[in-house]
Amino acid sequence: xxxxxxxxxxxxxxxxxxxxxxxxxxxxxxxxxxxxxxxxxxxxxxxxxxxxxxxxxxxxxxxxxxxxxxxxxxxxxxxxxxxxxxxxxxxxxxxxxxxxxxxxxxxxxxxxxxxxxxxxxxxxxxxxx
Length: 129
Known about the structure:
This protein is mostly helical.
């Protein structure tokens, strides 16, 4: 039986979790808001732009990223760990990809991280919305 695909809301939550994880990693395990805006929109509803996870949850995200294939980990590094002001187009060029291919790969990686964090991520979503 195949697992259901991650929804756009799931990927939006994982995007926020990976943004927070990257900030946590950059700041020596001190979580901080990773977006400058006050709200983040998934297209369905507005969510707080920051996602505060505890150390155990950050550790779970870190383990999920560590289990990714090298190419997927490289995309995580480029997309989440590089300067936030760098555009997606620049990041895609850095990876020798078109913007469309880059965005598709980022979406696939978000789905992989979502799958690795199941079922914990559903509990996190209920607490963080």
